[in-house]
Every structure is written in structure tokens, then in C-alpha cells.
Amino acid sequence: MDVLFLKERLCSPKLGQIEKVLGAVDLFLLVDGSRSITSPNFKLVKKFLTRLTSKFDIAENATHVGLLQFSDMKSISYEFALNEMHSNKQVRGAIKHMKYRAGSKTNTGVALTLVNKYIFNKRNGDRPGVLDVLILFTAGQAHDFSIARKHAELMKKRNIRIITIAAGPDAKNAKAKLVEEMEALATDLLNVYKVDFSELNDIVDKLIDIDCYLVSPPVQCTQGAVDLFLLVDGSRSITSPNFKLVKKFLTRLTSKV
Fold first, then answer.
1. How confident is the model over 192-204, as pLDDT tens digits?
2. Is 60 exposed, middle or buried (0-12, 13-18, 19+ CB in 10 A)?
3. Lowest-confidence pick of 36-40, 51-55, 215-219
4. 32 CB-side CA count, 13 A
5. Percent of the chain, pLDDT > 70?
6. How far is Cα of residue 102 from the mean position of the Cα atoms in its chain?
7. Helix (H) or strand (E) holding 151
8. 237, 213, 229: which is closest to 1 by C-alpha?
9. Over the stretch 84-101, which tens digit does the pLDDT of each residue have?
């Protein structure tokens, strides 16, 4: 868990909806365009992407955004590169005109291979010293999960933050293969979202909240008092090994307040 993120929430004088992310991010969107999405739901995905990107200040010296739609090999579509769009208006227009490919497979591994090898590098617009964030959105189990996991791990070692979003009927089933895959591919469990398509817009501010913490200067709690009460689940569902991790988290959290 991100202790400094929680610390910032406690120290912040204003809590609530975030209007705009400050600072620069190299943000790449990896979007499932397979048949499992369906055309009506893909329209909801586009609305979600439009709202999400509107929260960033997209400019040459601010946030850069790229997008790739993936499914089967012949339906992969590199919509726009990180260094191609330099305004919110351009990104909004590109998303609006993005066509649903409706491919026959969900080749998440192929997509992550492309991102790892070709997207987050200088030639294709990645900037040194700028936070790299990948958001993977899918509604289907990967046909090539072993490849997906390999390249996700390689990106994590390069400090690329991976946020995964599982959508559709399997997303709310904790035992579903889709959910297991998204949890394995993400940077950590705090970066995993499981939603129905109708709930996509509800998670925009949660996504931005994480990224706002990452691109903003660290908050120093130098004064002020907090009455902080910790309510911790101690049921069997936690398990003993995980409870040890919870205790370490609580120790680190309280050391920051």
C-alpha cells in the first residue's frame, strides 16, 4: 500500500473531486477491442477514456498520452503515440473517432510486449525523468497470459506503473480468471479496478487520485493534530501471512503521521 498517498490525504487541507492532475505524466492506454466488449459497451469505454484524459493537462511540456487498441493480431490498432498529441482537444478528437475493431481474441500478451519494447522508449516519445503509467483495460481473459505476465514484470522493473481495469460480468467475481490475471499484471492490488461497464466513470477520480499523488511533490506533515482510528479486518479471509503484511503496513503508516 502507498503510505505516502494516505499521508497526503490526511495532510491535505481540501479533500474531494480532483479537477486536474498537476505535473507531467507519460500515460499510455491499452484498450481491449475484442468481441467480448461489444459495440454498446465500447461506446461507454470511449466516454470513460475521454473523461479520464480530460483530467490531465495535455501539452508538449505537460502530460503526454498514447493509446493502442488490441485484440487479435490483425485487429491491433496503434491509435496515437505518446509524442503525437499535444492538447486535450486533439486527444478528445482521436478517442471520438476511434473505431471498434471487434477482434476475435484477447491477445493481452502481444499488446504488453509491444508496449514494453516499443512504447516506453525515447524514440516513441517517452521522456526521461517523467512518470510512466500504463492503464490496461480489458473484459476478457488473455489468450497469451504467460507472455503478458513476463512483459508486465519487465515493465515493473523499469518503474512503469501498471494500473489494470477489469470490466464486465466476470469483473466482480474474485475467483474469475480475468480478475486473477489483472491482479497479477498490476503494480500492486491498489492498482486493480473491477467494474461493470456502467460504473467506469465512477472510478475516474480514484485513478486520478493515485496519479495526482505520484506527480505532485511529497507532502510534509509538520504541524496539526489528527485523531486517527484504524479499523482492521482480522477475519479468516485475511490469512496469517497476509496479516503480517498488514501489520507492517500499519507500522509504516503510523510512523508517517
1. 999 999 999 999 9
2. exposed
3. 215-219
4. 30
5. 84
6. 22
7. helix 145-157
8. 213
9. 999 999 999 999 999 999
Q: Please give the Cα distance from 141 to 167 (Å, whole number).
A: 11
Task: Tell me the CA distances in angstroms from 62 to 9, 58, 83, 250, one per residue in order.
Answer: 24, 6, 11, 35
C-alpha cell at 3: 503510505
How many separate helices (H) and strands (E) can be counted in the chain? 8, 6
CA distance 73 to 113: 12
Buried b vs exposed e over 77-111: b needs ≥16 C-beta within 10 Å? bebbbbbbbeebeebbebbeebebbbbebbbbbbb
Q: What type of residue sits at position 141?
A: Q
Amino acid at site 255: S
Pair 143, 107: CB distance under 8 Å:
yes
* pLDDT one-digit tens code per residue, 193-246: 999 999 999 999 888 765 554 444 434 444 567 788 889 899 988 888 788 788
